Structures are given as structure tokens and as C-alpha cells.
């Protein structure tokens, strides 16, 4: 038998950063080498995402246990892939889709399928004695991602305390990935000082950013600019701002409803609000500026913004090739958020990134609000040359695990490594 032949597949229930159950899978090869996949979970989920299978037993972990997904791996999926070569990633991923047989992974669960897919890739890479980014990307894997890092967390990441979900920074002026993280850490602590000076709480939201208590949504932008300046950086030059609006969560009956400001807006009015923010603040990127099925609203927003900023579709595209293709054909947005568990296999995720890049859009590889210590997405971002990585904040160890892995990989790459900085955005911003 080849040393990379799969000998055993074993899944278990573990817990994520929100103390919710999730799936972990080990794939063990004939040579004794193991690969492990830990599956993340989102709070702000699009309705077109692949299905995360939970048990819905109110007597067990509030209905959130994943024992059925674990059972599916151990009893249904595992026996079908034992004896296959872990190096055949696409073959195994296609078999996983065949075993499930549904368009949205509803039978086996995307969490079961993704755990197996990730663990298989890690096992193959470990058997070769090379990092996952090199195994997946070959010699072309040398572009370090520009970080998109949360400083203030709102929306569903902070119990709906404000309407906007994420106020983030992008270190466009950094000369390296390590410097980029250092700059953001300085901004994080600078913003903490600004919060403290204004009597704001400095407790943290799900992804490590500060938990907001604002009177209006632009207060977050004002405080973030102050935090950048407090850290000694130039807003827009050294550090730009990115927003995850997560508009689907306050879209009701064709209106965009800011509960914080008791305000209802139609598509045109809401697009104008976002344009006014871009006029006033150093914003380089807006994610989910319109709702997931408001294609007309997205057309309006894209037309108004033109090529001024990055317009990222998350709930709109859900890492789904068909939805991404529809967006490209209609000229909607210019960037796609990429999440492994939105689609369910590594192969499908890499195909989505390839389609995004070939269309001239920018991919943004992203974590979820419910995370683990797994750093696979860092390797994925570098393997595919995606160019951007969104993980949450710089606080909390499930976030730091990803940023620290990026620092290590940059060190490994040495002179081969490229940190694109603001040059990356020149592909879409004119």
C-alpha cells in the first residue's frame, strides 16, 4: 500500500470559541501520519449556505450538539474513503458530495464533510513533510495576505447592540505581514484608550473586537479614526477602514432598518448613506452592503460606488460558484468573501477562489465568528494567492492562532514572500 493510503477516519465532538459544539476529524494514513480538521461555525449565516448539521435535541447542549454529524463521519463517510489515497483530494471531495447527494450538504452535514476534507489535505501534506500551503499551492504559494482585522464588533457578533456588524482596519501601508499585524495591534490598543477616555466599555465581542455602546452607527467610524491616530498612523494612508455591514440582518419588507437610529430606508437611500460614509471616512472596503437576495440593491450600490472601494459579497455569494458567476455576469460587487464551511469541501472552495480571481474580482478568505485553533485558512489564503485574510480581531487565541501562523509562514518564505499592501487594491480601485 502507498504510504498516503487512508487507514482510519475518526470524528468527535469538540467545542469552539463560543463554547458551542463542533466537529473535529482525524484522517490517519497507513504510514502512521495523521491530519486533523476542525470545523468553524458562523453566527451571521446566509440562508444560501451549505447546511451545518446539528442534532436539535433540546436536552443536549441547547439543541446544538453535532453527534449526528460525527456519526455520519464515523459510520457512513469514513468506511467509504478508507483505502483511498489522501493525495487524491479532488477525487475524495467529489466522493463526499456523492455520498451526501444533496445540493446543500443537508444529509451528511457540511460540518461533517468539511472536517473530512480538511483532515485529508493535512494528512497528505504531513505525509509529504511539507506545509499545507506548499502542498496545495506549489511553488507559486508566496503571496502573504493583507489582513482585514476587526477592532469593533457589532451586529450579531455583539448581540445586536448596533446595526453594523464589523468595524475593521486594513494595514495597507505595511511593508510585511508581520509589520501589518504589529500596526493593527497598535491600533487595537489605541482604540482601547479612546474607548476608555470616553467612558466606553472595553469588553469584547465574539471575534475579539470591542463591544460597542453607540448612539448612532457612525460613532464607530469616528472612534476608529481616533484609534488609528492615537496609535500614530495616518487614516487612509497607513491604515484604511473596512466595514462588514451584514445588511441582510436588518432588511425587512424591502427596507433597510437601522434600529439604533430608528430609521428605515429604501435601496437608493441606504446606498446613499454608504456613499456618504465613503466620502467622509477612509473606507477601502464594504462587505454585504445590501441584503443577500437584494440583487437590484446590489446593482444600485455597485453603480454608485463604481470603482471607488472594494465591495465584498458574503451572504450574497456564500462561496457558491453559481452565485458568484451570477454576480460577475451582472457586474455586481468586485470581491467575494470565501468561507470553507459555506460550501463544504476544500476543492469547491479553491474552485470558488479561482473563479473569483479569473473574473477580476478580489477574494477575501475568512474565518467565522465561532472558531477553533485551526489555522487552515491561513494556508488556504497563501496557497491560492487570494491576497486578503479576514479572521476577526487580534485578541482571543483562536484569532491569534491564525495571525501567528501567518507570521511563521512569512518567516519560512523569506525573500520569496510578497506582501502586496495597497497595491492589491489597485486591481479594482481606480
Automatic annotation (TrEMBL):
<dbReference type="InterPro" id="IPR020810">
    <property type="entry name" value="Enolase_C"/>
</dbReference>
<dbReference type="InterPro" id="IPR020809">
    <property type="entry name" value="Enolase_CS"/>
</dbReference>
<dbReference type="InterPro" id="IPR036849">
    <property type="entry name" value="Enolase-like_C_sf"/>
</dbReference>
<dbReference type="Pfam" id="PF03952">
    <property type="entry name" value="Enolase_N"/>
</dbReference>
<dbReference type="InterPro" id="IPR020811">
    <property type="entry name" value="Enolase_N"/>
</dbReference>
<keyword id="KW-0324">Glycolysis</keyword>
<keyword id="KW-0456">Lyase</keyword>
<dbReference type="GO" id="GO:0000287">
    <property type="term" value="F:magnesium ion binding"/>
</dbReference>
<feature type="domain" description="Enolase C-terminal TIM barrel">
    <location>
        <begin position="141"/>
        <end position="427"/>
    </location>
</feature>
<comment type="similarity">
    <text>Belongs to the enolase family.</text>
</comment>
<dbReference type="GO" id="GO:0000015">
    <property type="term" value="C:phosphopyruvate hydratase complex"/>
</dbReference>
<keyword id="KW-0460">Magnesium</keyword>
<dbReference type="InterPro" id="IPR029017">
    <property type="entry name" value="Enolase-like_N"/>
</dbReference>
<feature type="domain" description="Enolase N-terminal">
    <location>
        <begin position="6"/>
        <end position="136"/>
    </location>
</feature>
<protein>
    <recommendedName>
        <fullName>phosphopyruvate hydratase</fullName>
        <ecNumber>4.2.1.11</ecNumber>
    </recommendedName>
</protein>
<dbReference type="GO" id="GO:0006096">
    <property type="term" value="P:glycolytic process"/>
</dbReference>
<dbReference type="GO" id="GO:0004634">
    <property type="term" value="F:phosphopyruvate hydratase activity"/>
</dbReference>
<comment type="pathway">
    <text>Carbohydrate degradation; glycolysis; pyruvate from D-glyceraldehyde 3-phosphate: step 4/5.</text>
</comment>
<dbReference type="InterPro" id="IPR000941">
    <property type="entry name" value="Enolase"/>
</dbReference>
<dbReference type="Pfam" id="PF00113">
    <property type="entry name" value="Enolase_C"/>
</dbReference>
